[in-house]
Design a protein that fits this description.
Layout lengths: L4 H5 L2 H20 L9 E3 L1 H13 L22 E3 L14 H34 L2
Antiparallel strand pairs: 1-2
Helix pairs in contact: 2-3, 2-4
Amino acid sequence: MAITFDKALGIHEHALAARSQRAQVLANNLANADTPGYKARDVDFQSMLKQATEASQGEGMARTHPSHMDVSGSGGSPELLYRTPHQPSLDGNTVDAQQEQTRFMRNAMDFQASFEFLSSKFSGLSKAIKGE
């Protein structure tokens, strides 16, 4: 029985990609905190992860003929959602810099946790291959 990376690494591979994309969106929000009329955006991490795992497990739609369109969604960008502000500013900007920094740091910590887990998995796999 062959071991694939999907089986060995689990969901953390997809979590790293989703966290990286979310970090870009949150950083963009922080960069535009003083831009009049800018609307804060975010991605739904749970739906991104669900979509990625379904695509890797073969659930959902599959291409049964080469001329069919690829609808797996694995290569597309995540759907950007607008955030509902707690207190929008007078110039129409909905970015709360403190909230965005908190979200960005939380996302960074979650990214680091998944990265550490993957690092330990690779270390374990490497030891198993070497017979240590």
